[in-house]
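Long-time lurker. I teach an intro course on protein structure, and each term I like to show students one example going from raw sequence to a predicted 3D structure in token notation. This year I'd like something fresh instead of my usual example. Would anyone be willing to generate the tokens for the chain below so I can use it in lecture? Attribution to the forum is fine with me.
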Amino acid sequence: MGEDVSDLAYDHFRERYEPYSTVSDFGAAELRELTQLSLTGTEFNDDDVPQLAGLVSLRKLDLSGTKITDKGLQALGQLDIPLEVLILAETRITDAGLIRLAFLETLT
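-- Reply from a regular --
Happy to contribute to a lecture. Here you go:
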């Protein structure tokens, strides 16, 4: 049997960006212009959040089924990303973590 597609997506994400502290360090203009990103069902976790820092055009982020926690959500809220939609189904986020999103004025 082949590898799970979600594992491949995560492996590609980590392999491509792990050497860089942020996407902006990577210098890929097309990634800075990315408006939607789905990491659904991957191993994405709190330690991966800083790698999203260069996605300055990101409007929709789907983290459903990932390993992100309240700590990662707080870090995400500190990034300069104009998120309008954030999907967190089946994650480790608690009600207390969701309250931290209140200051994200761009979320609809």
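Some talking points for your students: Residues 7 and 22 are 21 Å apart (CA to CA). The chain has one domain: 5-103.
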